[in-house]
Amino acid sequence: MRGLAVLLIVLCAGCAETSVRGRDILRTGPFRDHPGLAARPADGPTKIDAGTNVLTDDELTAAERAVGAAFAAAVQQHGPAPDSALQARLVGCKLDAGSSRKSTVYRARCRAALAIDDEVFVMVESRAERRERSRAITRDEAEALQQQVRDFTLEYEKSVEVMNEAARFAALRLLDPARAVDRLPDDDRPHKPRIPDAEQRARAQQQLSTFGPADPWPDKLAALSELTRTGRPPDVTHCLRHENDPTPRVRAGVGLCLAELLGPGSEAALERLARDPDPDVARAARLGLRRHKIWRAQGAPNGD
Fold first, then answer.
1. Does any domain span residue 46?
2. Contact at 8 Å (CB) between 126 and 184?
3. Are residues 79 and 211 both part of a single domain?
4. Mean pLDDT over residues 137-161, rounded?
């Protein structure tokens, strides 16, 4: 009965476990406290990176269309915005999947961006993982599996669904981050407590208000980076205190802070920094000026 010998554990109902999580890669100042956004989704399929053992070429083409459509539908759930200057894009997804004797795992990672005139103002990353008990295969199938490129123990529908989960969660985190709550499996492992953003922001504000030219530049740069990540547009006043710091890395940090927070008084300072003799400082300032120009074209106040 060689053909009937079961190698893997039989799949049971209710054994699948799916988790999703996300994080911000970039979120410029005006989008940090917004309760919810509406955007128009970019048209067309999305780019998917998947091994040939997971999807055939035809499956990959179909999956790119399906995942792109799932992302567009999730964006449109936040309100129709055909004339919005904000465009939501699914930049791409990566799929990894594999099976063992005990379990089959599908993992997807997607990145999505919110752009105006091709300038990115928000970028997020989402991850979804589906874990289930492996389905049963026979010895004959196991031998055939060794000779094939496509792993037929991996199911196309489940591969697409885990990418759809990641794409939908990316859309939610992109447009309404307060509602994008990570769904994680039960985990009893201890985790290092995370310092709240508000506490990090207050600490960076305090440090930047007291640091002077003679203080160590790594400490100033660390505080600028922390405020760039957690601050709000009015916080640019703390960055501007260090516009003329003697260390180019600090001045470049000021340029990035102004470019991300998009706060009042930034453009005049960025124009000065764009003339800085250090190329890294000037490059950061030019990025900020381009972003400010696009943002102001939408009717946002200049602040200068």
1. yes
2. no
3. no
4. 71
Q: Which residue range forms the structural domain that includes residue 277? A: 197-297
Closest CA to 180 of 124, 229, 111, 113: 124
Same domain, 229 and 115: no
φ, ψ of residue 69 to 5 degrees: the values are -70, -40
Number of CB atoms found within 10 A of residue 25's CB: 13
21 and 140, same structural domain? yes
Asked which of 30-39, 113-122, 155-164, 257-266 is least confident by mean pLDDT, the reply is: 30-39
pTM metric for this prediction: 0.82
| CB-count exposure of residue 97 (10 Å: 0-12, 13-18, 19+) | buried
Cα–Cα distance, 304 to 302 (Å, whole number): 6
Q: Average pLDDT, stretch 4-28? A: 65
pLDDT score recorded for residue 226: 95
Residue 54 pLDDT: 86
Same domain, 14 and 146: yes
Q: Residue 185 falls within a domain, yes or no?
A: no
Residue 304 lies in a domain: no
Domain count, the chain: 2
> Could you tell me if 114 and 210 lie in one domain?
no
Confirm whether 187 is domain-assigned: no
Q: Can you tell me which residue has the tokens 């800085």?
A: 276
Neighbours of 274 (CB within 10 A): 17
Q: In terms of domains, do 146 and 233 share one?
A: no
Residue from 176, 274, 235 nearest 29 by CA:
235
- What 32-38 contacts at long range (C-beta under 8 Å, 24+ apart), as own/partner pairs, is 32/232, 33/232, 35/176, 35/178, 36/78, 36/175, 36/176, 37/78, 37/86, 37/114, 37/174, 37/175, 37/176, 38/78, 38/79, 38/80, 38/81, 38/84, 38/86, 38/175
Most distant pair of Cα atoms in the chain: their distance:
82
Same domain for 174 and 43, yes or no, is: yes
